[in-house]
Amino acid sequence: MRDKLTLAAVLDGYSRRKDRSVSIRFHTQELTSGDIMEIDEMCDSFGILYFRPGEKADRDELAHLDKVDLTDYDTKKSQSQRLRAVLYKLHQVKESPMSFEEFYRQETERIINHYKNKLDE
Question: pLDDT tens digit string along 68-99?
Fold first, then answer.
């Protein structure tokens, strides 16, 4: 699988989503089976969308896109949602006899106290 996909396309439309994100639709010209296979392999990947209507792509702009660090944007969950999900998995793995809510309160309290103690150091 290639790590980039560059196609000529027409911006066909968009729709606003409940979570304030936007779904964007593009139409391409006819594609080869190989191009379609690459698109299929990239489905559900996180990346950058660069669209420039009516003009040729600028090499400097494309080179800049290769340098963009996506690590700050590659998750759909907030940090607190991620922590809760990890604690939920831990609760399952440990097979804790307490409810998840009790386990969650206990673990988050332990984390909070850990950092509160650091303030006293």
Answer: 777 766 556 778 888 888 898 888 888 889 99
Same domain, 96 and 47: no
Global pTM exceeds 0.70: no
- DSSP-derived letter for residue 11 is E
Domain of residue 94 covers 79-120
Query: For tokens 């206990």, what's the residue?
Result: 106
pLDDT tier, 42 (very low <50, low <70, confident <90, very high otherwise): confident
Domain co-membership, 54 together with 23: yes
Distance CA 76, CA 81 (A): 9
Residues 18 and 54 in one domain: yes
Q: Which two tokens stand for residue 114?
A: 């850990």
Question: Contact 27/12 with Cβ under 8 angstroms?
Answer: yes
